[in-house]
Design goal:
With about 650 residues, the protein is of the alpha+beta class. Helices cover about 20% and strands about 30% of the residues. The relative contact order is 0.08.
Length: about 650
Amino acid sequence: MIQVARSLVTVLAAIFLSLLFAGDADAAGFTITYSGPNLSGTISVIATPNGDGTFTVISASGSQTLGPLTQAVTGVIPLTDGALSRFYEGTTGSYFGYDNQLKPGSSPVFGVGLLVTFAGGPSPILIYYDGTGYYGSGIGYEESIYVGSDGNNAPDSAFEVYTITSLTLQQPSVTFLDPVPTLFTPTTSSITSDLNTLATGGKTVSGVAADGVTQLLVRVGGLTQGQQVNVSIVDETNSVPATGEDGTLSTPQGGTTAGPASASPAPQYASAINGYDGFVLYQSPVDFVRASALGAGDSGVGSHQVTIQVTDTNNNLLASSPLVILRPPVLFVHGLWGDPGTWTQFDSFLKTSITGIITYRADFEVTNGYSVAYNTPIVLAQAADFLQAFRSANGAAASQFDFIVHSMGGLISNSMPGDPAFDTPYNYYKGYIHKLITVDTPFQGSPLAKYTGASSAACKQKLKDEGAVVGGAIEDLTPGSAFLQNFKIPPNLYYKHAIASYLSPGETLSAEIAVDGLVSGILTGSKTPIVGPIIQKFQPVDVCYSIFVTANTSPPAFSFPTYFLSSFDPYSGASDLIVSEQSQLGPFNLGTTAHQTSGLAHSHAAATLFGFTLTALPGSLDSGSGTPTPNPALALALLNASVSSTGSNSFAH
């Protein structure tokens, strides 16, 4: 009876040592389940690692049924001389040994043996493995109860030996599962209740994106029927957050919750697939940067880590696993006549400012002059592909992006909810957008689009030769177009903020001089060069001069403010030379859900297309220019801001 005696031994020690070892981060929990012709039992033990793959039991709880008796575990006989303790059997000095060691994954699973005390019957009881049959009734696991004072090395009537025909050693485990698509029920937009599916389905992951939509199923395996455990989120300070800033927990298959970050699941039996499992649903936080003091370290990183811990009712640690919380990936969307290179400076700034941030760039350069309706499904399909790439590359569950969009890209992004592909199981039917930050988006269109659309065939051909197709996009961006009349920013789907760029009157004057000189030169045939911050390029203005000749303003007295001025414009026609500030702000409120930045043109490329390059005026996506704050820095602050922020970094919802 020398060897297995130790699984039960731990129970007595639990009474005396549970306070000492409560919450010991090095301890691990195991469950020993056994049965035989006349007995069955389930014992939960706490054990500390020995550094060689074995564990020494320090406490235990549980019960067994022995014939007509039900016996509760009362303790573990502690070791008396370190490596080998001895259980005497009388005055002859015969004994059984016990060392209270477990060997997970081995056969047998005990070292020498476990000696445990029980209430309600003969005690102590030795559980051991007899590889020779010498002490008991045969080779295998046995239980021996000491009932007499005599003892020797042969089978002795002073001992009652019970054969154990089945014995398992289980250790509670924590597995994070991405529930979509296999555990997600589309008809109810919730996690399935089928236990067999929960026990076998889902994709194992190690991280989750902080988008407020993504969920994880936390499967706690290795439990026994009725076992009470607590699952908690533990932050870097080894504390359970009082708020949901690291995510929240709930119990979809029965159990209780004790605050947003702590839950006690009810063990569920799934057709003997994993024995008993406990299921906890983890909901990702809506903000990556935490509101507590821990948030100070979040603003410059792409991820941080918490721990999901499983403890027993005495706060002994049974299992734990680290969980990586990632920022939502950023998706850049360019605009009319743009391409992914539009974002080079902007992207570089974010990656320099935030270590580990992950960004993607939509690309519809080939169709960048086509209508919003044409390009929306193109960008949407790329978003779906990028999301899968993010999930695979990071071993994480994720559902949404933080969109940063320029010009017409804002109209495309806001049009996505109208596409059936926007809501899928992969985003819990909440769409692909977490935050949407627009830069210079023409919510009310632009007169430049109106006059470009009305230009001559020669002008349109020349622009096409320059890579700027005059097509459905120009029609959509014309003030009063059918598209703009029907365009509405969807409410309550995602968090929105607008950035508007404009030039001061003095900065605008340089461009006005350029237009006056170029167009007047064309009309008079003189084409007099202009000096200063302007590099002249007479094509395609040679055939497109009519774009700048309107009833209200025309060379030689061209005025951009007059050109862009519309009714009830509180900004007096201020613009980025392509879109008025009023149009860029649209329905957003300056000072809360919108920012304005002066000293920026829409982009260098757009100005060049129309015949002049403003060498002294940076574009709205440049990283180091703009007053009071460059647009990339504004976007960075918005990425780090809470969706419930007030003040200048607020979001419309």
